[in-house]
Amino acid sequence: MSSLTSKVALVTGGSRGIGAAIVQKLAAEGASIAFTYVNSAEKANAIVKELEKAGTKALAIQADSSLQKDVAAAVAQTAQHFGRLDILVNNAAVFVIGPIEDADKNTAQYDRQIDINIRSIATAIREAAKYISDNGRIITISSAVANYVGTAHLTDYAATKAAASSYSRGYAHDLGKRGITVNAVQPGPVDTDMNPDSGAFADAMRSKTALGRYGKAEEIAALVGFLAGPDAAYITGASITIDGGLSA
């Protein structure tokens, strides 16, 4: 029997990159899956069909994580559709970088980054707490830059990720009495369309890692799968860095 059989998981931002890898991993472990997407209904529906063909119950939910009402609705829809909620993975995020001299020109992008990278996490956890089963799992995809920035132009993004990890520590105390674990996963550079290993900063980032390479989305998903399972029941309030030695 797979470790997550009979469990229901919601993954925000689950149609691409790390989110899509997490969806596939949790499904492989036996969970029924809901995931949110913003724009590509065709791609989201293709993932649903693929999962259903493999025997997984799946639901794609259109939701903009910059809108807190969409986040709350996605949580409620998941619980209502499947009749329960056991695992929440906060993955949706945006990556806005730039020099301090340009900060005043990018206030709209800054506000959107705050809304998605911070506010949506708080909203999702607060809403999930209404539905999630005792001994459930909440996992937030933060970033290694929450602890180690290492270069210029990442300040605002790094601050949002530090907040994301801090939420996990705080909510671990709030929800621990129900056996619910709350943890953050802090990836380093991972090859996705948001941060490809062929991008403008790729060589510099690669050279900073001990392993000399970008991570794979599946490697992040494997850690999430472990934290979602029964063997991680005594891990909570942790911020686990998985960065190839970037911050070593």
UniProtKB/TrEMBL annotation:
Signal peptide range in chain numbering: none
Record-linked InterPro entries: KR_dom, NAD(P)-bd_dom_sf, Sc_DH/Rdtase_CS, SDR_fam
SUPFAM superfamilies: NAD(P)-binding Rossmann-fold domains
Any single Pfam family the record assigns to this protein: adh_short_C2
Ketoreductase domain residues: 7-193
UniProt keyword terms in alphabetical order: Oxidoreductase
An annotated Gene Ontology molecular function: oxidoreductase activity
Superkingdom of the source species: Bacteria
Gene3D superfamilies in alphabetical order: NAD(P)-binding Rossmann-like Domain (3.40.50.720)
PANTHER family in alphabetical order: OXIDOREDUCTASE, SHORT-CHAIN DEHYDROGENASE/REDUCTASE FAMILY (AFU_ORTHOLOGUE AFUA_5G02870), SHORT-CHAIN DEHYDROGENASE_REDUCTASE FAMILY PROTEIN
Family: Belongs to the short-chain dehydrogenases/reductases (SDR) family.
Protein name according to UniProt: 3-oxoacyl-[acyl-carrier protein] reductase
Record organism: Filimonas lacunae
